[in-house]
Design a protein that fits this description.
Layout (H helix, E strand, L loop, with lengths): L4 H14 L9 E5 L15 E6 L9 E6 L9 E4 L4 E8 L2 E7 L6 E2 L1 E3 L7 E4 L5 E4 L6 E5 L5 E5 L7 E2 L1 E5 L12
Antiparallel strand pairs: 1-2, 1-14, 2-3, 3-8, 4-5, 5-6, 6-8, 7-12, 9-10, 11-12, 11-13
Length: 182
């Protein structure tokens, strides 16, 4: 069977689109050194899954977004409220679900989440609307070392060792460990 160039391009586009969120709810966030999407998030160049974590557990007032190595069991899903520019996720601790909301993203600062209502400046941009953006810019995310040595997401981080990345909204989690049922 022969495919015309146009039908092959349409097929590839549909395959890639199926891996991208169709709504601004229930998606995973991954970093990658490439801006272009992939139908399989595990095949993005330099891909890393992300999860919120508490840099200073004693205070528990803000969360940062850190990178995860292969071998995790679960990842949180995120939602984006386009009207407020707030990225959010719900995490459960001691059987109590808490919604964590992104704060306004600023230059040379970590992406932060707090457990209070917010107005922020995050959106989706890029070709296909799958890259997280700040003020319509998708180019500016960096991975920098936190005070505790974790690799965390910054916007336009300038510290030594920070590296450029893209923050993708995807429907499938990369390199997730599958639990075996016996």
């Amino acid at each position: 069977m022969r495919f015309s160039t146009l039908s092959l391009a349409t097929l590839l586009s549909a395959t890639i689109s199926s891996a991208l969120p169709t709504a601004l709810t229930e998606f995973y966030l991954v970093t990658s050194s490439q801006a272009d999407p992939s139908s399989n998030s595990s095949q993005l160049q330099g891909v890393s899954a992300t999860t919120p974590f508490d840099e200073s557990p004693i205070s528990g007032t803000k969360l940062l977004l850190r990178l995860l190595e292969p071998g995790y069991n679960t990842l949180p899903k995120f939602n984006l409220d386009a009207s407020t520019g707030v990225l959010s996720t719900t995490l459960t601790s001691s059987n109590v679900p808490t919604q964590w909301n992104s704060t306004t993203v600023q230059d040379n600062a970590e992406l932060q989440f707090v457990a209070e209502p917010q107005k922020a400046n995050i959106g989706l941009g890029g070709k296909g609307e799958y890259l997280l953006s700040v003020g319509n810019a998708t180019d500016g995310w960096t991975i920098c070392e936190s005070g505790s040595g974790e690799s965390v997401l910054w916007w336009k981080g300038t510290a030594e060792g920070c590296s450029k990345t893209y923050l993708h909204a995807v429907t499938d989690a990369p390199y997730q460990r599958k639990l075996r049922v016996r």
